[in-house]
Structures are given as C-alpha cells and as structure tokens.
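#lab-general

N.A. 3:47 PM
ok so I finally got the sequence cleaned up, no stray characters, all 255 residues accounted for. can someone with queue access submit it? mine expired

B.Y. 3:52 PM
send it over

N.A. 3:53 PM
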Amino acid sequence: MSRELGPVDHGRLLEALGIEARVLGEVAHEASPDSPVPTAPGWTLGELLRHVGSIYRLALGWMTEGRRPVHWQRGPLPGEPVAGYFDAGREALLAELSAHDPAARASTWWPADPTYGFWRRRMLHETLIHRYDAERAADVEHATVPDDLAADGVDEVLTLYFDQKLATMGLAGTRHGTVGIRTGGHSWIARAGPDETSAWRCSAEEAAAADELVEAEASRVYLWLWGRAAPTAVTVTGGHDLAAQVWALLRLATR
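B.Y. 4:20 PM
back already:
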C-alpha cells in the first residue's frame, strides 16, 4: 500500500507529473530559450529547462545509486539542444518512478519518507512550479494549478522546506510567532523564531487561533508560498509581520 503523506495519493501524483512535464516541455519548445523568466530573475527559459533537466537526473541518481550522486549530467552535451536534454531526463525519470511501487524504499534527502513516493511528489512540485515559470517567460496564458495539487504543494513546502530544510541550512526567524494557513479544506501552522522553524497540519480552529492567519484559494496560497504571487494574493488577518517572515524564510529554503 502506498504511503500518502499529503492530500493527494501517489497514483495521482505520478499522472500529474507526466502531464506537467509534458506541458513544460511544450511551452519551452515554442519560445526562445533566451526569454527571461520574470518569476526567477536572472534566468532565461533555456537555463530554466537545463535546471529542471539536471534536477531530474539528480533525483534519478538518488534512486538508482541509493545515495546522493556525486556526478550526473548537469547540462546538454556539446551540440545537444537543451530541449532534447530536458526530454531525455523527463523520460528516464518517469520510467524509473513508474517501475517501482511508491512505498518501495528509496534514498531521499527527507528522513521522514525514504520511498519512491517521496520522489513522485517532489518531482511533481518541482515541475509544476517551473511550468508556471516557463509560461511567464513565454508570455502565454498559464494553465491552472488544480486545487488538489495546489493543496498538496502547500503541504509539501511547509512540512518539507519550512519544517525540514530551513533547519538543515541553519536558518531561523527573527520574531517568535505562529501563522495559520487555511486553504482547500486543509490547515497548517508554521511557527518561527530565533531558535525554531517548524510546521505541522492542524484543525481549522487551531489555524484560526494562530497569531496571524493566511487564507486564499489553494492555487494562490501555493504560488504565494513559492514566491510566485504577490503578498496581496492572499488574505492575512491578525497582522502581517509573521506571515511576511514565513514568506521570506521560504524564499531562502526554496531558491
């Protein structure tokens, strides 16, 4: 039986990964690789595609080598188009994930979930957020982020990046306090201070009792937490300083 750490089951995650990766590739194929990426300043669309292709190969190495790989193909070979490099990485990743039960053990960088299911989820959200970036760079109408995937992405960025990665990076907040996040029928609390960053799932009532409360439709909260939406994209009650701290800390954790 597959492990389900978030709101979405692993079959849906794998299916969505295939769709999002295909859309990302199609958008990038149709626009100039020199197009700047407004949501990732300093990057071009070609660099974005190279980055995702490299991440696919890094994840594949984690799974096949049983540890973080030391060497992997980080960019196209001489004469290889970046689109072809991305496509090859996508196909190899999907083949590996499809070949294993999501509950099967796999090396990961999150101690709470050493399974293939971790990589289904992580690669979906890596792809989905960069699909959004690519659409901004190509100046095309962006596809919606489905509510279930957005809620799952909120859960992942809070429980994985805010709760786990900030601590491993040695980063914390400057002000003590809690922020409740409510969207898509799910609720979380993010707590920060000079000696702590943690996040966990909670009831709607517990989230409302936090020092500040962030609410909006799931896609808006998702994009806000990933720094792809303006501060005004969500509704904040009880103040703004603590919510801004959560937003800023996640900029450091997800960059």
